[in-house]
Write a structure and sequence with these properties.
about 270 residues; four-stranded antiparallel beta sheet; two-stranded parallel ribbon; about 40% helix; globular
Length: about 270
């Protein structure tokens, strides 16, 4: 992983998405005050990536090919589920490990305002977050573990009401990408209440234990920080992630394999 992210960081050295002098001086990791980011953000709202003819390409594909042995991945013991959104149908397609290719990974991360859709088997695909972020059903239907861990990177809750155009766009992005996850968690909560457990799939839904790992740092970062690939920023995120995992282990570790530490029934409030 360190090798992969270091390659991403090096590839982004000459990217137009760089922090402005003011953000660097104030220690902000966002790109909100970068003139080039503001210009590119405005252009993304007015100009289609198809109008640009794919100018500049996307170095991520080459990095994926260099970093991942897809043959070993397909034959490995760990189950993998990658979601991409079918542009034509609007539905998510879940790719299993034997189906994962560079195109599948590129499709699962394809933001339509920035990149042209990725074609797979004759269909165009966008980021999987629009249809499943992540898709949880395969974890219940196709996996044996009763414990599911959610690593939260988009804040579900954020204090206060956004006022500026940037704050509104940032919160709208978070709400949009969390919507599919919350909807699926609500569905799971309802199924656990109404489905007869029995001995089949119903039992899997009943036994499902949900845990969530999250950190306060995510509420301090805006949407534009997702385009920041500075090595110092990436290592900061890594270290914060480790802190969050350690904190989870100390407070919730004894409950793993015993009970849920994230009460998804709370998501039914107002439903």
């Amino acid at each position: 992983l360190e090798d992969f992210w270091s390659k991403v960081s090096r590839a982004a050295t000459f990217s137009p998405f760089q922090r402005g002098p003011l953000d660097k001086m104030m220690g902000n990791w966002t790109l909100d005050n970068s003139p080039l980011f503001v210009a590119m953000d405005l252009m993304a709202r007015l100009v289609s990536p198809y109008a640009l003819g794919g100018a500049g390409g996307n170095p991520l594909r080459d990095i994926l090919c260099e970093s991942i042995d897809f043959t070993r991945l397909a034959s490995g013991p760990v189950k993998l589920f990658i979601t991409a959104t079918n542009v034509r149908t609007g539905r998510g397609r879940v790719f299993r490990k034997h189906e994962v290719t560079p195109d599948v990974l590129m499709a699962s991360a394809c933001l339509p305002s920035m990149f042209q859709a990725v074609e797979i088997d004759g269909d165009a695909y966008w980021d999987g977050g629009y249809s499943g972020n992540p898709t949880l059903t395969p974890l219940v239907q196709e996996c044996e573990s009763d414990d599911t861990f959610l690593v939260q990177i988009n804040p579900v809750e954020r204090p206060g009401t956004p006022r500026s155009a940037r704050e509104i766009a940032n919160r709208l992005n978070e709400v949009s990408f969390n919507a599919t996850l919350l909807k699926e968690l609500r569905m799971i909560a309802i199924l656990r209440k109404v489905v007869d457990a029995g001995a089949g799939e119903g039992a899997n839904w009943k036994k499902m234990r949900v845990h969530r790992i999250t950190g306060d740092i995510m509420t301090k970062l805006g949407h534009s920080s997702k385009l920041n690939a500075e090595w110092a920023f990436l290592t900061m995120l890594r270290d914060e992630g480790r802190k969050a995992a350690d904190a989870f282990g100390r407070t919730c570790g004894p409950n793993i394999g015993v009970r849920s530490t994230f009460d998804i029934d709370d998501l039914l409030e107002g439903v």
